[in-house]
Amino acid sequence: MEKLIITAAICGAEVTKQHNSAVPYTVEEMVREAKSAFEAGAAVIHVHVRTDDGTPTQDRERFRVVLDAIREACPGVILIPSTGGATGMTPEERLQPTELCPEMATLDCGTCNFGDDIFVNDMPTMRAFGKRMLENNIKPEYECFEIGHLDTVLGMAARGEVPGAPMQFNFVLGVNGCTPATVGHLDYLVKQIPAGSTWTVTGVGRGAWPMVAAGIVMGGNVRVGFEDNIYLERGRKAASNGELVEKVAALAKLLGREIATPDEARALLSLKK
Length: 273
Ligand code: KMH
Ligand code: ZN
Known about the structure:
Elements: E1 6-9, H1 27-40, E2 44-47, E3 49-50, E4 56-57, H2 60-73, E5 78-81, H3 91-94, E6 104-108, E7 112-114, E8 117-119, H4 123-135, E9 139-144, H5 147-158, E10 168-173, H6 183-192, E11 198-203, H7 208-218, E12 221-224, E13 231-233, E14 236-237, H8 241-254, H9 262-268
Parallel strand pairs: 1-2, 1-12, 2-5, 6-9, 9-10, 10-11, 11-12
Antiparallel strand pairs: 3-4, 7-8, 13-14
Helix pairs in contact: 1-2, 1-8
The protein binds (5S)-5-amino-3-OXO-hexanoic acid and zinc ion.
Residues 13-14, 82-84, 86-87, 106, 108, 114, 119, 143 line the site of (5S)-5-amino-3-OXO-hexanoic acid.
């Protein structure tokens, strides 16, 4: 099996300090959390940004400052800024981090329920995001929250509307209202992706640790972090994103999977930069 790429989604747009006091908002807090994850073995950091009071924002300048600060604290780390932002944001708002030409960014592959909200990713929105990523030479991480999202983005790739092979998928399972975090669903999705693709699994909430275990043994890659889950185990909150990544590293070791450095992850993801 290839080495395991660990992604840390350190902040998200929905989780707050009320849920876990270590959720980062300020630039300093973002750097602290990114560094803790990086030092524990994360090769990739998925980045959302907030204003200092915790309000989610897609402001380009806030992204610039946070991405630069994380890069400095975590040499070589792969950064995947979010173009998903928070539900209710406009496509134009969400696209701002792509103006910074990061090597990767998320591209959400369809509309879905998101708890009590609707996360809107209609075809015109996805085409606009695909066009921007083609123009700015950004490799998308294709976020699939629903089984149908995968089929949608494979069709778009076949039509040249989004960057094609080799594609990187992130199967985000267990969001309320979307495909549940089960091994059966993950197995189905993995079997549909084109040869030569790479994939990551993210389990949300109580699906987090079962999906980490599944991702490790199935030969994929895994994502953890406060965006998805704030617990180390039932009833025990993680003190940092680093603690969540440490648990992934320990599980990988137990199960015989080595962890990829950022350079190794860059090669596995066919990143040019
Ligand atoms: N905050 C969610 C509504 C992404 O980063 O691309 C969307 C999200 C996906 O987090
Ligand atoms: Zn995200």
